[in-house]
């Protein structure tokens, strides 16, 4: 469930990760936390392009890696002249374009989500604000951002709470998931494997670990390969020649994947309410013959979120995203357990849940049945938005149906 429209309440002239008409009507300065398309809402639309063209002083701040990614993608490279690079741990001041007496000091640090992902700290006359974007920090890493912890009290924490649900208390660390994947692959000498990803970037640790262990390049398509022109340490473990390897992560698919064992790298399937009744002893689960799922999360678990919130100890917490079963009453109840009793409580509009399903989970929701197709809703959803939304809601409905006997057998394997 999406619970943030992009406009900072304390500094409405700033929008983050949203470039829609409503943002253009209010904001003059924009930030991008990372490259995933649910955080680029409206950036590809003519409305925003016309807005910045008519107001050429507008800047879009992001990390250097994100700027490079955007300049490579056809949907966003036309805005290259408006991207400004943020340097890690280097505070700088931004003036409100329409009020010379209003400014904020911005400091950024890594978010641990994907290459180029940032947390953003804003300090100004209307309070100190921390925006995490999507993030994954293990509980023992929560103290690593000294630049944040050394600042004065955080007044409002805008935080990714995608898995803020006690039933999702723990998720496998990416290192453990990768170790399990390596153990599985090394059982087969000549078998091809297709690693089905749900976003352009975020799986670099797996690619590099597989190469380090097996000495085998990972096959990707040309666009994926050249995205990493700015990250040669990643690009050197990739290839665009599918004949050179038995490990494929090409998107959306290629001829080499037909006879491959398919492994879906995701997490949502493992966290769906109906799946919570099952205790998974391994991050790798067999769904059917030659079809597996690996629990690989780019988002923090419930325990990791709680540790981070306790460490930051903000006055108020505003979630960027929540599980859609968490309503405002339940959210504030869980916050009280963390020692945060904010008033007035934050209330979430019911309509936000539908928008969040459309814009965030289109990456990872798939049909859980054995006849799973390759028509998943991918990151370039804006090209076929209406069709994709119909497919998505059909699949969400399917997820609520009882499993057939055949599917039950597949799950029990």
UniProtKB/TrEMBL annotation:
InterPro entries: DRMBL, RibonucZ/Hydroxyglut_hydro. The keyword Hydrolase applies. GO terms for molecular function: 5'-3' DNA exonuclease activity; damaged DNA binding; endonuclease activity. PANTHER family: DNA CROSS-LINK REPAIR PROTEIN PSO2/SNM1-RELATED (PTHR23240), PROTEIN ARTEMIS (PTHR23240:SF8). Pfam families: Anti-Pycsar_Apyc1, DRMBL. Residues 272-319 form the DNA repair metallo-beta-lactamase domain. This is Protein artemis. GO terms for cellular component: nucleus. The lineage of its organism: Eukaryota, Metazoa, Spiralia, Gnathifera, Rotifera. It comes from Adineta steineri. The keyword Oxidoreductase does not apply. Belongs to the DNA repair metallo-beta-lactamase (DRMBL) family. It is found in: Nucleus. Keywords: DNA damage, DNA recombination, DNA repair, Endonuclease, Exonuclease, Hydrolase, Nuclease, Nucleus. GO terms for biological process: DNA recombination; double-strand break repair via nonhomologous end joining; interstrand cross-link repair; telomere maintenance.
